[in-house]
Amino acid sequence: MLKVFCSGYISPEYAIHGRFSIKSDVYSFGVLVLEIVSGKKNREFSHDDYNDNLLGHAWRLYKQGRSIELMSASLRASCVIPEVLRSIHVALLFYF
Fold it and tell me: Where is the Serine-threonine/tyrosine-protein kinase catalytic domain (predicted)?
């Protein structure tokens, strides 16, 4: 079996223990949703103040009621904000 993956999208269970399941795909989808909303790549993102990756940053903003700050400026200008906020919430459910 050939294993091909991008490290920014693999679940922690797979990265640490080599266990792959349907939950791994769900995790990857959540990462992808957050990347689309933010306009940033998980692998390239780093928050200066907290040393968070994109997922940690999204979770921190969500807990503080500030998820709207995750949205890219171009998305914010052309979207239905409640739908994007719901997408962020759903993506975080895949992660946590």
Answer: 8-42
